[in-house]
Amino acid sequence: MKTFNKAIQDATTPQGALDILKEGNKRFVAAKAADRNLLDQVKDTTGGQWPHSVVLSCIDSRVPAEIVFDQGIGDIFSARVAGNIVNEDVLGSIEYGCKVAGSKLVVVLGHTMCGAVKGACDDVQLGNITALLSKIRPAVHAVEEPMNAADRTSANKTFVNDVVTKNVHLTIEKMRADSPLLTEMEKDGDIKIVGGVYDISNGEVTFV
Ligand SMILES: [Zn+2]
Q1: So which cofactors does this thing need (predicted)?
Q2: Rounded distance, CA 125 to CA 123, Å?
Q3: Residue 111 marked as a ligand binder
Q4: Domain chopping of the chain, boundaries
């Protein structure tokens, strides 16, 4: 598979970038990874990089973005932080990927049974984790069902995964609110911003 270069990046639309990731995830799930020589791609990208997408995902060891989307060296920017939340630094990284380096798509990728989301559901207080989880707490509050407090914990898989999806949506909302630069690019059709959830039981990404 060919390494992304400026000409290919220029010719790729936001929808085209999304299709590339969807096709890549299909290959991953089918255990039919594209044939690519990563060391050749290192050489191809020594002089520069023209990734088609920026993926914001969790640090979870089970969700490496390049692998689950079957992408090579130089294909995507990968921002990872527990619970795939945004702050100023993460937004700055995504803005760099899109505005400076020309990426066409931003994906906020949550995943089922996310440990950070579980921690937020249980309101864990521990070191700097407390401040991190406070950024996920709005998603916990925004999920209305179940009403019974005893069922709103990490022990309830359905609740956890509902919060995962809500967290993806709220993260995108916050991205639009806190990054006028990305919002303008989106309005102008220069980029798309989409959310997805990766299922740790079967490797599939569902775009939400
Ligand atoms: Zn996670």
Answers
A1: Zn(2+)
A2: 6
A3: yes
A4: 6-207
To which CATH superfamily is domain 6-207 assigned? Carbonic anhydrase (3.40.1050.10)
Ligand 1 centre from 6 Cα, in Å? 33
Contact assessment for residue 57 and residue 88, using Cβ atoms and an 8 Å cutoff: no
Q: 68 C-alpha vs ligand 1 centroid, how far in Å?
A: 14
pLDDT for 2: 83
Rg of the chain on CA atoms, in Å: 17
Select from 44, 36, 21 the least CA-distant residue to 72.
36
Report how far ligand 1's centroid is from the alpha carbon of 63 (Å).
8
pTM of the predicted structure, to 2 decimals: 0.97
pLDDT of residue 42: 96
Cβ atoms of 203 and 23 within 8 Å: the answer is no
Q: Which DSSP letter does residue 86 get?
A: -
**121 belongs to an annotated ligand binding site:** no
Count of alpha carbons within 13 angstroms of residue 120, beta-carbon side: 30
Q: What pLDDT was estimated at residue 1?
A: 83
Extract the tokens encoding 63. 């969700």
**Can you tell me the distance from the alpha carbon of 183 to that of 193, in angstroms, rounded to the nearest whole number?**
9
